[in-house]
Write a structure and sequence with these properties.
Elements lengths: L12 H7 L1 E13 L2 E6 L4 E5 L2 H21 L3 H7 L3 E3 L6 E3 L3 H7 L1 H9 L3 E10 L2
Antiparallel strand pairs: 1-2, 1-6, 2-3, 4-5
């Protein structure tokens, strides 16, 4: 999933014209749950599952796209990100997103702690485009 181009096209052209996007660097955790590969973004609480890494990545991209589409349609993206520990500053045209740091995620996400304590994991960071709400 290190190929950041996989995240292109997460927004429709109409959304981009109305909202614009910024790139946000977030941590990704990958692990196996039995015969299933999992891709997880703890800062967004978005998962993807599949029979292999490629299938899990595609599922993750679908889940991420649905998260963004839904929160944009309901006009709840900012409030949902804040609920997840994000800090959002700036005007609507000059928005700055700060992802919760790993210490915050560990202290507020029991599922992440369970994964780290029970699964062999791989982690990496990647840029995710976020719509300006």
């Amino acid at each position: 999933m290190s190929d950041q181009s996989k995240f292109q096209g997460l927004f429709s052209v109409d959304q981009l014209k109305k909202k614009g996007t910024v790139k946000v660097n977030i941590g990704i955790v990958t692990f196996d749950e039995g015969d299933t590969s999992v891709v997880y973004a703890p800062a967004l609480e978005v998962y993807g599952y599949g029979k292999g890494t490629d299938e899990a990545e595609k599922s993750f991209i679908t889940g991420l796209s649905e998260f963004i589409d839904y929160t944009l349609a309901k006009d709840t993206l900012d409030s949902e990100l804040k609920r997840l520990g994000w800090v959002i500053k700036g005007s609507k045209k000059n928005r700055k997103f700060r992802v919760p740091d790993f210490a915050y995620l560990l202290s507020n996400n029991e599922r992440l702690i369970e994964i780290l304590n029970t699964k062999p994991v791989k982690t990496f960071k990647t840029d995710i485009p976020m719509a300006l709400a």
